[in-house]
Amino acid sequence: MPGSDKSVPILRCGAMDSYSFVASIYRCADGSNPLRGNTRAGAGARRGNVGPNQRGHIIDLYEVPCPGGAERVFVDMYECPRDPQGVPSAKAMRVREPLPKESQDLLEAGLKLLDDEKYSEAIDVIQNALDIASRELDADHPQRATLLDLLGMLYLNVERPWQAEKALASAYQLWKASDWPETPLTGNTCFRLASIYSERQQPALTACLAQQAIALLEPLKGTSDLRLLSAMMMLGQAYLQQGQLDAAERILRRAARLCGDSRGRRDQVFQAILSALADVYTQRGDQSKVDILRKRIQAIPTPRFQD
Fold it and tell me: Residue 149: inside a domain, yes or no?
């Protein structure tokens, strides 16, 4: 089974793609996803390397905290997954190229600061990593996009949306130039840009980016992924703002069904999806459906926070 042994590792395209795989795609023996897409947690699950395999690639060992006990996952971050014909694309081969060592070391330090919620310090460290990578890699190298995406996320965490937009837009252009490599990071970039435009009440841009985030995330992360469900919610709200009630209803009904079927902490997103769907029926004058949805919203448990 791929990933179960050093001789048959999971193939990924670089460090960030490895963290994303462990956090988002890997499933425990019981089918659960304990890291819930948290890339920081994916990085934290790394236990070091176990030396080279038969191809001479250094193999990393991760331990995922599954309900039945920690599960070991072996990952080769230097061998991108192959296409159905068994030949890596030229773009995939560029994505698998490692960051310069100094940039990689700074990336890992920045992720540690992110995990400790020291966002401002992490911004400085990741910016330094990006500066080094920009000097040593081609201007259109997709590995720069991984750092720009992370930088954009950090700017959002410190409520600096204009700087976040600049970093994420640059990452978007790099992903596009690389023909959208098969990594969840591409979808993350689109999702974060969509969230910025949604906050600014720019429905056309929100819809465009949310649609792309859905298309990129769903094949890689599955229909229970919280970011995917949130992108569907944003798309439905954008359609609603544009007066496209049929399109809004379709995507929000699908999001509500998927969210209702999912396990985990999705109550707030589920509530927002149902609320947006109620707004669709309000605009249509269908009060009976509005009342049904309001009752469903009221039945959703309220999150409890402990001091």
Answer: yes
Answer whether residue 121 is part of any domain. yes
Indicate the helix (H) or strand (E) that contains 58: strand 58-66
On whether residue 218 sits in a domain, the answer given is yes
Distance CA 217, CA 234 (A): 14
Distance between CA atoms of residues 95 and 51, nearest Å: 22
H-state helical runs in 222-303: 226-241, 245-261, 267-284, 287-299
Task: Give CA–CA dist 43/255, Å, rounded.
Answer: 29
CB of 277 closer than 8 Å to CB of 253? yes
Please check the confidence at residue 302 and state whether its pLDDT lies above 80: no
Q: How many CB atoms lie within 10 A of CB 234?
A: 28
Q: Residue 166 falls within a domain, yes or no?
A: yes
Classify residue 78 by its DSSP letter. B
In DSSP notation, 213-226 reads HHHHHHHHH-TT-H
pLDDT digits (tens, 9 = 90+) for 197-219: 999 999 988 998 998 898 888 88
Selection from 40-44, 263-267, 279-283 with the highest mean pLDDT: 279-283
What domain range is 272 assigned to?
A: 183-300
Quick one: tokens of 188?
Answer: 């993350």
CB 100 within 8 A of CB 138: no
Q: What percent of the chain has pLDDT over 70?
A: 89
Query: Which two tokens mark 223?
Result: 């229909």
Per-residue pLDDT tens digits for 43-56? 889 998 888 777 77
